[in-house]
Structure formats: structure tokens, C-alpha cells
Design brief:
The protein is mostly helical. The chain has 14 helices and two strands, in the order αααααααββααααααα.
Amino acid sequence: MQLDRALDTYLRHVTIERGLSEHTISAYRRDLSSYLEWLDAEGVTDTDEIDAAVVGRFIADRAGAEPPPAATSLARLQSSVRGWHRFLAREGIEQDDPSGRLRPPKAPRRLPKALTIDQVERLLGAPSADDPIGIRDRALLELLYATGARVSEAVGLDVDDLAHGDVLRLRGKGSKERIVPIGSFAREATDAYLTRVRPGLAAKGRASARLFLGARGAPLSRQSAWLVIRAAAESAHITAEVSPHTLRHSFATHLLQGGADVRVVQELLGHASVATTQIYTHVSVDTLRDVYATSHPRAR
């Protein structure tokens, strides 16, 4: 099959049949488009012409690029390539999977960076309470920290997702839904936004069910939400690196430090495996180690 047709077939599959998120599909499209460009430069025009040696040369070429890619980026690229070839083999488009022996590089174990409770409070208090956009931003930040939602989940919320009292409905990866509690601070902040700000924003644009709207009434984008977080961090004079996932990391870390069970945190975060959640226990263990070292008379 021609490469472009094979790629389109695969992207339709992951979109319709597997129901992957738009963000994940965009990553697949980006990775596989770079793969097809490389194949075209090598004179490969059909999937039948791809064998294990071709796949290996592509990965080696990418691994040897200057500057060298991060291990996580290379691992994601390999995963995209393997997923595509596995699909083609399973559908009978290829006779076998030429990426079957491909092994992803071992990514370094990186502990998520969490803010302190004091830093979180400064971050949440940064948006102005007298400005409509500031009220919206405060609601967004409070909700992210209160629920551990991914930024993509927060901007994907509809107003109806809040219509459950003290819980919130989130749609995670693969369109999986989960119900999470929402604390009083986040509830008050979102209620203030819904009653005082959102009606005015909604009147500026087309009718939208989305909870968070931009200044012109359109649904708030992930990129705009990231700018909100970065602006709040600057206003709060937080020098630590703050990323779109920082409040999610802080949510999980603070829960575990407060005594929450790792399985409960797993459910709240929407992790398919508890192994993914357990990385946060290492942060808590580091904290316990520091406290022990400074408090126990015979620790040193």
C-alpha cells in the first residue's frame, strides 16, 4: 500500500475505533509524518518495501541527530512507528511487522516536580479578583489543583459537568470518564466565574457548552490555559519551573503526604495502572527521608 494511504488508514483507526485524544493523535501524525518523509528521501514509496533494516536505519538516524533527542522523545517516536507497523501487519496490509525487534531506549526515571503548599496558595491567589478574566483564571487554577485534572481535561469541561454538587465529571484519555470530588474553594471560585463572568463572555461568541471561555467567547484552548498558569506563576514570583502538569503533580504529592492511599490517588488521577501513580510515592519518601535526617538524633 502507498505510504500516505497506509498512514491515513491508521489515523482513522486510532481516531474512530480506539477513540484516542486529539492530542495523542496529533503526536502520532507528527511522528509518522517525519517517518514518511525520511522513507521518501530513501526512495521507499510502498509499505511492502519496509523491512527491519529500514526501520533500524531510521531510528539510528534520529538517535544520531544534532542536537540529540531526549530519550523520552525517541521512545515516543519508536512507539508511534511500532504501533503503525503492528496495525498494518494485523490488517494484512504488510506480511509481517518489520518493527517487531525494535526496543525503545530506557528513559531516565524523572520524579515529577511539585510545588510546596505555600507556592500553590500564592499561585492560586495571583489572578485579580476584580477583573473578569482574573476571576476566570482563578476558577481554572483552583479547579486544576482541587481535582488533579490534566489541562486538556479542564478545558474540555462542559458546564453540565459541574452539575453534580460537590463532584466533577472529567473525561480522560481514551474518552474514559471519572468522577472526582471538588473542594469548597474550587466550588466557590467556579460559582463566582459562572455567575459573574461566563454569561458576559458567552454573549461575545457562538453558543458553547464549554465551561471555560476566552475573552472573545470561544472555548479556552490548552495553549491559553498554559499562558494562564505561566502568568500566575510570574505574578506569584515563583522561580521554580511551572508547567501545565505542575498543579496535577502537586495535587498527587500533597494528597500522599497527607496520608491518602495510593490506590485512591490512582483513581483520582485516572491512571490505568497503579505503577504510574507510585512514582509520586518516591517524592513523599524523599520528604520523609529529609525530615528523618534533620529530626532523628542518630540519623547522621
